[in-house]
Structure formats: C-alpha cells, structure tokens
Amino acid sequence: MEPFEPKLSIKPSFFNKDPDENLAVSINNTLCQVDIDQIPDDIVSRCLIERGEKKLSSRQRNALIEIFTLFLAYHLGNSESKLNDYEAARKMQKKLTIEESAFNECYYKIAESKIDNRIRFLLGDKFFTEDEEASLILLQTRLNVSNEKVNNILKQIRTQMMNEKFHEIGSDGRISPTEEEDFIKQMKDLRVTIVYSNEDLDRIAKMKALWRFENEPLPEVPVSILLQKTERCYFQSPVTLLETRAVNTRVNYFGPTARIRIMKGVYYRLGSVNVRPKSEQKMTKIDDGMIYITNKRILFVGSSTNRPIMYSQIIDFEVCSDGISIVKESGKSPIFMISSDAPLAGAILAKCIKDSVK
C-alpha cells in the first residue's frame, strides 16, 4: 500500500535489547505488502505480544501517529487513491489504535490543508466555475469538513489574495484611479471586505495623491507671501534649512612621528613642523522657516535668511522620508528637512521642474 516502503529493523544494543522503534518498523513493513482491508484489526496487539509487551509506550504511540500522518498526507483528497476520504481515515485509525484526540488533531489539520490547496488552485483565475464549485463541495463532503471551516478558509485565502494585489499595485508608491477601481471590483467579485488601519488609510491617500501630482494639473495652494506675477504655489511646509560645512576638528602632525620619554609623565613628540588643521564635512543648521514650491522656483523664507532657487539652477535632487537634498549647478547645495511629507513634496517638485522646461 502506498506510500509505505520497507524499512530495516533497528539492531539491538547492549543497553537496548529490543528497541521500541521496531514495533512501528514491523507495522510499516506489513503495510507495504497488503491493502488496508487485509491489515489485521489486531495488528498492534499482535506486535506487542511478539515483543512480550502489554501496552504501547509513548514513543511507540508517537511512531504510530507518524505512520497515520503519512497515510493521510498521501491519500486524503488524492483523486488517484481509493482511500482518499474520511471513512478510510477512520478505518486506518482503528487498525493503528490511534486515540480520538490524536486523530482529530492529525486528520483535520491535513484535511483542511487539502481544502486550502484545492481552493488556491481553483481560484487561480479569481473565480469559481459551477463545475469547480461542485468539485470543491464533493471534496468537502468526502473529507467531512464543515461549511464553517471551508468558508473561513475561503475568506482567509481571498483576503490574502487582495492584500497581495494591494501590495502589487502600490509597489511603485502610486495608486491610479484605474488601479483603485479594479481593486474595488475584485474585492466585490471575491466578496471580501478588508478593514485597513488608520496608518494604512493614510498611506493609501498619499499614494493616490502622488499619482495625481504626477499625472494631473497640480492644485494651487493659497499662501500669505507675495509671489511674482503668474507665479503659483503648489506646496508649503515648515522646514529646517541645512548645509554641509567644513569643520576643523583638531591639529595633526604630518610625516614620521615618535614619542620620546624625557622624565616620568613628560614626553616629547617628534614630527613634521608642517602642522595642518584636519577638517570634516558636517551637516550644519542654517535656519528654520517655510518652504514654498511654485511653478517657477523653490523659495525658502526663514527667520534670518531667504533663499530663492530657480529650477534652471538645479541639476539634481534626492528625496528621503524626511527631507529633500538639492544639488545646484554652483554655490552651496541646501537640504530641507520637511516636517510634513517629503515624498509628496518631491513629487510636486519633480512635476514643477519638468513643466518648467516645456
């Protein structure tokens, strides 16, 4: 009988004259040679008598459960097997004297996994045909799995599918109206309702906004400062202006050096008389203020300094989660630490730069 294969008995040792594992080996080898109906109902008790034992040890019970699990994994739901249903499982339980609690734990875990696999296969195209639904009901009946359990499995799989779909459409950080419409339609078709957290809803809103900023006319933002004629503002936010500055850290001796002890606690340092300050580039705060991104420029208005940056001066910029770094053709390149949403600001800036060169 499938899937059992012959095994060699474990050889006795000085400390273990008759290993417990050999009872399961003997039963396994019997299962290799006969069909389920040919297995004696008292096969376990016969093996115990042959071994001069009266009851199963915990190790022997676990070994029989492993045999039972192997049987279930191969036969349950297998269309090529005649032992693929609940009745066959009960018959094997009786032969192997599997306790009811162990049966329920093993059987329903495997039976539900078979249902799960079948549903995933049938939902490959997102929908059940009438024939596919009928085949699922037939499998459910043969495996004696309740409607409640099957419905729970269906719900979990459909929810997982829609979560995977959501991550797929949001992988570029944008959600278009068409993608949102298709997503909602699929949820309705699969009869799934996904409850998102406030954090997820905020992230979805930002991804939809990013798509709009890149593909639709930018909405104008009213500001309290005076702009140039025909200048329109699309983003404003409190920011901190930073720049990289060279900072002297210490004085170094260059060339070969040595320390010579003159007396206790006093040393003389030999080295080049050419001493130089060592400098490092460090991020330095320049000012706090407001940033305005308009159709003509970036404008920083601070408490002590104002910085206009025309788009023709920008050769590159980098967006991080909390700021935007501007690379200018000449002069100092500023970094704006944005307290609101830097990725949205970056999308608006990219749109404005692109439109400025049309």
How is this structure best described in words?
By secondary structure, this protein is of the alpha+beta class. The chain has 3 domains: 118 residues; 61 residues, no CATH class; 88 residues, Pleckstrin-homology domain (PH domain)/Phosphotyrosine-binding domain (PTB) (PH-domain like). 44% of the residues lie in helices and 22% in strands. It is built from 10 helices and 9 strands. Strands 6-5-4-1-9-8-7 form a 7-stranded antiparallel β-sheet. It has a two-stranded antiparallel sheet with strand order 2-3. β7 and β8 form a beta hairpin. The longest helix is centred in the first third of the chain and has 23 residues. The chain is elongated, with a radius of gyration of 37 Å.
